Amino acid sequence: MMLLAPIWLFLLLPLGLALWLWRPPSVLLTVLRATAMVLVVLALAGLSLRLPSREGTVVVVADRSLSMPANSAALQKEVVDRLLQSRSGQDLVGVVSFGEQVAVEQPPSRDPFAGFTHQVGGNASDLAGGLQTALTLIPPGTPGRIIVLSDGKWTGSNPVPVATTALARNIAIDYRTLERPTAGDLAIARVDAPSVVSAGESFLITSWIFAPTAGKIRFQLKQGDRLLASGERAVQSGLNRLTFRDRAMNVGNQDYQLTVLPLQDDGKIAQSDPVPENNTGRLLVGINGPRPILHVSEAGQTSGLARLLTRGGLAIHAVRPGQVSWTLEQLSRYSAVVLENLPAEKIGQTGMETLAAWVRETGSGLVMTGGRNAYGPGGYYKSPLDPILPVSMELRNEHRKLALAIVVALDRSGSMAVPVAGGKVKMDLANLGTAQVLDLLGPMDEFGCLAVDTVAHTIAPLQPVTNKAPIRKKILGIQSMGGGIYVYEALTAASQMLLKSKAGTKHIILFSDANDSEEPGRYKELLEKCEKAGITVSVIGLGTERDQDAELLKDIARRGKGRIFFSDKPEELPRLFAQDTFVVARNTFLDEPVGIQHLPGLTLLTDQAMPSPDNLQVGGYNLCYLRPGANLATVTRDEYKAPLAASWRAGVGRVVCYTGEADGKYAGGMARWERVGDYFTSLVRWAAGPANPLRDNMLLTQEVRDGVHRIQLHLDPERKAEPFTSLPRVTLLRSQQDRAPRTEQSTLRWTGPDTLQLEVGLQSEETALGTVEVPGHGPVPLPPVCLLYSPEFHPSQTDRGQATLEKLARATGGQERLDLASIWQDLPRELRWVSLAHWLLLAGGMVWLLEVLERRTALFGSLLYRTTASRRVEDTSKDGWADAVAVQPKRAVKETPEPIAAEPAAQQPQAAPSPAPAGDLTAALRKARQRARGRTE
Predict the structure, then answer these.
(1) 887 part of a folded domain
(2) Rounded-to-integer distance, Cα 635 and Cα 637, Å
(3) Quick count: other Cβ atoms within 10 Å of Cβ 553?
């Protein structure tokens, strides 16, 4: 017996005192009240008993990786439902799912299982993590079992050591195998190639193909878009070797893709391969050498700036934006990127996120030049590249000439309720874009907002922007409702708002779903009237130019003399709203010639002094402002004193901004300056940075084996002292297709007297790019690495699959669980503390009800009195004096003669009533007194 909270026993003192001061009218009531008090206090004190019990917890560990059968989720839910149906008493069922991550789908409970709701990723099988999480869900000291529903394939940590922890807690691990058939699976078992080679070096790529039976296969090896080898070959059952030869051409890395397919006897491709995902493998080979500079412009190789940089001795790779994929594996081939008058939409949201992370974390460089398609007008305000630029593109009202009246018409139809990343819906991001427009305006401007479905709803009437907070709150509260957007209604309501404005610039931003823009009505006539009234219209279409209503939206923007934007990524909406507002509110590209002056900060970039001729000019530039901490190299000589060239470090990378147009109509006299080649070459060379070879005979290596990326730093065994005082740091960029890269930082650890190492698990379809910072050295970027394919589809190995599940069961006393209901009988009987609190409270409540009943009816008191009285009668009869009480003396009876005549009734004498027995009268009086006292009490 144990009290969990014995401090509550002190409550008996005041309760006992109260019971003594205000005693009930009878002993029975006193006993009942005291009993109820004691029971409640014991419940509060947590009275518990240690009793043996089988009631416990069963946790289902469900594998949701890609290697599982297609219907595995339904089968796993069926198992959970069967366990819930067969349990009894206080038994609990918990559910854990695992893939790349581990998630608790349902904590141990008796509630029905609603199904799998968490996204755990299917490109890995963290079985060890799933088992460890399941163990934490079983309370210590209580019976429990784990049942694994999996094919037994695992990645990452080995799950077998977890069995030791389960065995120590007397928790058995059962299993039920769920797996897709693998008979007849042709697969690429592995590919061997050097991780790094030198530029111009030839090397071998050796692939091992697993064939289930003898036959013929078709193979193809591509390096990028170039076909390197293809053909057919006969294979034997088991492992077969294919060898290829190639030469390192592209400094940085070369990517390869190998494909093998089974052939039928007639030469056609067989369709019977049960796991086609392991028929294609991807490989990256790092190539050492000086990395060139990537130059991206609409002119491509014909760019005058690219030719100028080439003449300056820089290795330039000039391309058009459509030739760049903006992936880590492509960017890692270059030391810097030059964006010449390139709009942000040519890079895309994910591309800008990848480019910004690459510059910050790998020590690479970025140079941006100006023009009508760059900086604010180009859509870079509030973009992922904005924070790493040394100049800001804010819209300062003191530099504006005309007031602006702008109305935003938002589509709030049902399609805007579709969820997007970050727990938001499309409508939320459209609201953020509209709030961005409001934030860019000043007191001289006017702003209005409409939310449109089948009609236009006024969110904010057109009014001067004096108090933004309440308007912003209303905008952010717009919710998706109703059907599609009625375009004509939106344009009509917005134009009617603007007709009342006196502002010099009047503009409408129409936001609409490119797949759900309805009822355009007579929009052509309406836009003609808007043009006469000086109202322009821009359109932001959520979708692509191939959507069904895209042509309508294009026509509205063309007739409205505005701009058209399309994006199928809702997260880009705030940037697009801001970009259009920039162009309308104030064209930040000033297209008038202006003089420039070089400052001493230019020396930090060029390592030489460059004079500033008094007549040196540019034909136009983007008006920006220097950020705190940035280096100002060249400044304009107009009223703004704006930066023309500025630089700073972003993370470990270098960024240079040249706000003038480097090549084109607005290059001005700068293009004819005799030192212009040295000027731009110095800016780009500084951004690219110097090479950072490791000194003191240190060597960095990396390899990928069994899904693990291993980075090693080898030190000189004959060194006189340690070359650094703190551990080298590793920054790892991890990206997948169409996703922004994730940044992870760690440190190398000693694994030997001369070796430091870091191991990181990789995921399929992921590119990892590591940068090592050794104290006293600059950042050293490593070539990117990747997995051949998802480890989930690797051919079966002897130490994984069914064998893993059997090892776990044998080590813990588990079994292959075919009969699910029997698992509850197999739970071990264990002594555990059982709380009696709820039973004590229930008993206390019953005693209290008995007290109330007794006070109202005196039922138990009467029964007790009668029982006591009868016992007393029996006792007195045994003593011999009961007869004296029970026998009454005989009274003399006087005989009356028969009357001669009847007397009147009134004159006849009345018979005296016989007295009641003394015992009955006393009992009646006592009973009446008790009832009266009970009512008053």
Answers:
(1) no
(2) 7
(3) 26
Least confident residue range of 92-106, 360-374, 516-530? 516-530
Do 608 and 668 reside in the same domain of the chain?
yes
Residue 781's CATH number:
2.60.40.10
Q: Give CA–CA dist 779/358, Å, rounded.
A: 12
For residues 684 and 367, what is the distance between their CA atoms, to the nearest angstrom? Answer: 7
Under DSSP, is residue 141 helix (H, G, I), strand (E, B) or coil? coil
Alpha-carbon distances of 640 from 254, 329, 377, 589, rounded to whole Å:
47, 41, 18, 13
Q: Are strands 621-622 and 215-223 parallel, antiparallel or unpaired?
A: unpaired
Residues 6 or more apart whose CB falls under 8 angstroms from that of 380 comprise 344, 368, 374, 386, 389, 393
Cα separation of 99 and 79, whole Å? Answer: 19
Distance, CA of 493 to CA of 530 (rounded, Å): 12
pLDDT tens string 759-803: 988 887 889 999 999 988 888 999 999 999 887 888 865 557 888
Predicted local confidence at residue 601, as pLDDT: 93
Instruction: Please check whether residue 888 lies inside any domain of the structure.
Output: no
Residue 292: count other Cβ atoms within 10 Å of its Cβ. Answer: 18
pLDDT in tens, 294-353: 999 999 999 999 999 999 999 999 999 999 999 999 999 999 999 999 999 899 889 999
**In this structure, is residue 875 part of a structural domain?**
no
DSSP 165-226: HHHHTT-EEEEEE-----TT--EEEEEE--SEEETT-EEEEEEEEEESSSEEEEEEEEETTE
* CATH number of 173's domain: 3.40.50.410
Write out the residue range of the structural domain in which residue 770 sits: 699-717+725-793
Sequence-distant (6+) residues with CB within 8 A of 923 are: 865, 869
SS3 for 811? helix
Q: Which residues pair with 215 in a beta bridge?
A: 235
Q: Distances from the Cα of 465 to the Cαs of 405, 478, 499, in angstroms?
A: 10, 19, 18
358 DSSP β-pair partners: none
Concatenate the DSSP letters of all residues of 20-61 into one string: HHT--SSHHHHHHHHHHHHHHHHHHTTEEEEEEE---EEEEE
| Region of 596 on the Ramachandran plot (φ > 0 left; ψ -120 to 50 alpha; else beta) | beta
**Residues with Cβ < 8 Å from 551, sequence gap 6 or more?**
none
Query: What's the alpha-carbon Rg for the chain, to the nearest Å?
Result: 44
63 shares its domain with 209: no
Distances 109 to 138, 143, 149 between C-alpha atoms, Å: 11, 15, 19
What burial class does residue 709 get, using C-beta atoms within 10 Å of its C-beta: 0-12 exposed, 13-18 middle, 19+ buried?
Answer: buried
The secondary structure of residue 285, as a DSSP letter, is: E
Q: Do 162 and 235 have their domain in common?
A: no
**CATH number of the domain that 312 lies in?**
3.40.50.880
Average pLDDT in the 176-198 region? 89
Tokens of 247: 């030469």
The reply to whether 116 and 249 lie within a common domain is: no
pLDDT, tens digit, for every residue of 573-587?
Answer: 888 888 888 778 766
Residues 423 and 317 in one domain: no
Task: Assess whether pLDDT exceeds 50 at residue 909.
Answer: no
Residues facing 596 on adjacent strands: 636
| Beta strands at 404-411 and 336-340: parallel, antiparallel or unpaired | unpaired
* Residue 268 phi, psi (nearest 5): -85, 155
Strand partners, 781: 771
Structural domain count of the chain: 6
> Quick check: is 571 in a domain?
yes
Same domain, yes or no: 47 and 63: no
How many angstroms separate the CA atoms of 817 and 829, rounded? 20
Are 315 and 336 in contact by the 8 Å Cβ rule? The answer is: no
Calpha distance 757→751 (Å, rounded):
6
Strand partners, 734: 742, 768
Both 656 and 756 in one domain: the answer is: no
Q: Which amino acid is at 406?
A: I
Question: Is there a single domain that holds both residue 815 and residue 753?
Answer: no
Retrieve residue 384's tokens.
Answer: 């992922």
Specify the residue for token string 């009631």: 55
